[in-house]
Amino acid sequence: xxxSKSSHPRPVVSVILPTYKEAANIPVLLAKLQSVLSAYxxxxxxVDDDSPDQTWAVAENFAPDDARIRVIRRLDKRGLSSAVMDxxxxxxxxxxxxxxxxxxxxxxxxPALIQAINTDGYQIAIGSRGVDGxxxxxFSKSRRFISWTAATMARLMLPITVKDPMSGFFAIARDTxxxxxxxxxxxxxxILLEFIxxxxxxxxxxxxxxxxxxxxxxxxxxxxxxxNYLIALYDIRFGRxxxxxxxxxxxxxxxxxxxxxxxxWLGNLLGLGAVxxxxxxxGHLELAAPFGIELSILSNYFLNNYITFYEFRHRxxxxxxxxxxxxxxxxxxxxxxxxxxxxxxxxxxFLIDVLMEPxxxxxxxxxxxxxxxxxxxxxxxxFTWNQNRS
Length: 390
Ligand code: GDD
Ligand code: MN
Description:
Layout: E1 13-19, H1 26-36, E2 42-48, H2 55-62, E3 69-73, H3 80-89, E4 95-98, H4 110-118, E5 124-128, H5 141-157, E6 170-173, H6 174-180, H7 191-198, E7 204-208, H8 223-238, H9 244-269, E8 275-279, E9 282-285, H10 288-308, H11 316-347, H12 359-384
Parallel strand pairs: 1-2, 1-4, 2-3, 5-7
Antiparallel strand pairs: 4-6, 5-6, 8-9
Helix pairs in contact: 5-8, 7-8, 9-10, 10-11, 11-12
The chain binds guanosine-5'-diphosphate-alpha-D-mannose (GDD) and manganese (II) ion.
């Protein structure tokens, strides 16, 4: 990691430019920045994730002799927020500014952001589309709706009044970054929301600018970015109490109860409910029950795979067969654990002196459910969706 040397006075501003497939845009932006920043001591840090269009090489060749333009080419990581964090980590500036590299952010707003941080004593300054002087320009209706929903949800859930908490254009004071970097979850696109959420005492100002349309390349915003945003809102607000992964897992589990019932109903409808068998002890074979149970295991698996554990999801037919096999085995184990715990407690008369029947029985049953759920969760996190698997 680079350290600032004492012979090097700290630049007034470091501008971090995350790039992925912006080869056509980056030279244009660098030239614009050189002129906007000419009155400052500055550095520009391009953080590229090994773009196939060689954005990193284009940036390196833009002004090879200018030490103020630094390029990081990351081979091992992907993601907008984590690129911003890595850029900030090696930045020397007093003010750390971030902007998109696709020319959608108006570089002429940079001096106002820098002044807010370095002169006016704000800790976070936001290039904002939602305040006076700002606008979404010709941004599509659907994207505007996504932005509006995200901002409104953030204002409802967090004690913030910021109009554009999803802005990718902002500046933060060096110390504020340093003090909160360990608490930041660098997943997805909502790095600004993280900084605001984790620094509730920070003085924040919004500075209007007009959002521009992309000329070259395309957006990398996706469904998973939106999912990560919602998780981040939850984490910033409630993450201290219950982890968001467990919360999602529990919600999927609850949905499984409904699927289970629906499957039982469907199974009866299909005539699986009472197959006549002349086996000892079994007059009716209740196939609607295993049908409902299995349906809920399948839906739990797929919902967990695509929502709860999205980052570690199994892909393709074989990947999913393997994941499902593990999940199925763990679910069966859960069945045994729940039953075993209940049997053990109940037959030993646990709680029988404290609660009257049938409450003791139900309490024991509930303890079995909770223990089975906890062990299943533990096993699924560590085996089915083990993040360290190769
Ligand atoms: N290094 C790196 N790695 N950079 C990335 C990655 C990545 O995985 N994904 C995107 N970028 C860069 C892009 O090259 C671009 O410079 C910037 O991050 C923004 O990406 P876009 O794909 O253009 O995002 P957008 O325009 O759809 O989203 C904008 O608006 C959102 C809110 O509406 C951005 O400003 C977001 O930050 C903002 O949340
Ligand atoms: Mn963009």
